[in-house]
Predict the structure.
Amino acid sequence: MLVDSHCHLDFPPLADNIEQTLAAMASQDVGCALCIGVNLDDLPRVLSLAEQWPMLLASVGVHPEHTGGREPSVDELVALVQHPRVIAIGETGLDYYWHKDAPEWQRERFRTHIRAARQAGIPLVVHTREAAADTLRILREEGADRVGGVMHCFTESWPIAEMALELGFYISMSGIVTFKNAKVVHKVARRTPLDRLLVETDSPYLAPTPHRGQSNQPAYVRYVAEAIARLRDLPAPAVFEATTDNFFRLFPGAREKVCR
């Protein structure tokens, strides 16, 4: 079995074809997908998917690019993760690509998520883009190593990956690892300990080769795992098994929610 550790099934076009998307998942032996919350206003859509389909789980959080809607508080996030299908806090983190002035509100929002994760005892889903130094600094300052989590869609260098691993975080590879010119990502995929790797699609974005340029979907996470296997000179089933075991180790209780 494979697990897609990060997807957005409430986004179009996937939300408009959810039964077809889930059938495609099953055909590729993708037995679980984590649907990621990106703001509080749209969270009910994410939770509804996880409530309706046993192979889907959810996270709650406000994405660092999100500038509209209400800001989360620690208490609200802690309350939201009591939902039986929620297993993580995030997507949270820092994005200086879209916010080049590095606004303090973004850093404070990130701290709020980490504090909530610590209070709830639940892992984080972290987004970082052109902000690795501040992301790691804030994770350290806020004691994120006490709950751990995943650095999703990882595109940073190996030294950054090492520092994230030292904090107890897992490294998640997306369809980018299938791109021929993604040499930095290839190096991280080779060097990260196999027991600390996850795979994801970030669908509907970042479709892997051979579907690059198309809408992505959880069924395509197989291509991500197969690319890692080639880079590490391993049989694909070994990567399938390892990344699935890693997901359920990072998110205790998730296995019983989807493997009933």
User: Anything to note?
Assistant: The mean pLDDT is 95. The chain has one domain: 2-258.
